[in-house]
Amino acid sequence: MAIDAKTVKQLREATGAGMMDCKRALEETGGDFQKATDLLRQRGVAVAAKRQDRVASEGIIETYVHTGGQIAVMLELSCETPFVAKNSEFKDLAHKLAMHVAWTNPEYLDRDEVPAEVIERERAIHETWAREQGKPDAAIPKIVEGRMEKQFFGERVLLDQPFIQDESVTIRQLITEAIGRIGEKIEIKRFIRWRVGETADGQGAEAQEQGA
Question: How many beta carbons lie within 10 A of that of residue 11, not counting itself?
Fold first, then answer.
């Protein structure tokens, strides 16, 4: 079937993929916009998996100061080559990520950083809630895991948070899609968030360096 240029352009704007990649995805899915979007995302995952063992030793440190100068973020985004580090799409991604951190204030970069005792405490809280709601014993483990994914990891872990500009994708998926388009390993190495009035030990403030 013939794919019109307007649809190709809309898909490119939605996914950031190249025009020819968008056209091929639409052709392969019979012009179905959502299926074409999913296909492009799947291809991004495949590229990311292939580059998982690569070393990302280049990159940039992005700074973002929120309107009013009350909150600031520094975020290190890494890639494989200096060429990509200068790429406008890579820089734009770093800016979006820093802005996201300013808005959402994640406590951890990845769930592997969350202490085991914190996870167990949160699970216990959700299990107590489920029992108080009268949920069947057999259903409680699944309920607890679901609430942990959404209300704990999805709120406090940066890579698992929904992206503020498109909550249909997580930060992890956003980076994976960028890897598929750019063709290099990309990863957040660390970030730090400050708020005016915080103390040096972080009491009364959100700043906490992650991933160092």
Answer: 22
- The pLDDT tens digits of the residues spanning 139-176 come to 888 998 899 998 899 999 999 999 999 998 999 989 98
C-alpha count within 13 angstroms, C-beta hemisphere, residue 40:
28
**pTM, rounded to two decimals:** 0.71
35 falls in which pLDDT band (50, 70, 90)? confident
Q: Is the pLDDT of residue 203 over 70?
A: no
Q: Provide the residue type at 204 as one letter.
A: G
Structural domain 115-155, CATH architecture: Orthogonal Bundle (1.10)
Distance of CA 58 to the CA centre of its chain: 20
Nearest to 210 by CA among 184, 185, 190: 190
Nearest to 91 by CA among 56, 50, 63, 55: 63
Residue 22 pLDDT exceeds 90: no
Does domain 58-110+157-195 correspond to CATH entry 3.40.710.10? no
- Could you report the per-residue pLDDT of 107-150, keeping only the tens digit for each? 999 999 999 999 999 999 999 999 888 888 888 889 988 999 98
Sequence-ordered list of residues with C-beta below 8 angstroms from that of 38, at least 6 positions apart, any chain:
none
CB-based contact 179:51 (threshold 8 Å): yes
Tokens representing 12 are: 């490119």
5-50 CATH fold: Helicase, Ruva Protein; domain 3 (1.10.8)
188, 159 contact by CB (below 8 A): yes
The β-bridge relationship of strands 162-163 and 166-170 is antiparallel
